[in-house]
Design a protein that fits this description.
single chain; mainly alpha; 64% helix
Length: 88
Amino acid sequence: MGKEIEPDVYCYTVLIDGHCKTNNFHDAIDLYDEMIAGGLQPDIVTYTALPSSCWRKGDRYRVMTIVDEILKGWNQMTEPCQCYPVVF
């Protein structure tokens, strides 16, 4: 008892996805920014949940910013990624 748990990408993604599904867009974006600031690399689930919620909210600029980050990350990969975000 008394040990702190360091959140990983999975913890953040679950919280982000939960906020997205309950229309708490501001909290989801805050968590995303916190995750990036903490040096964690979002995964495909993060990159699907967050832009989808921003799209539903009408924040097209934020969607494009996230997509640009995805593309930048893919361009830096040494092996091709076979995963693509889905925006509804």
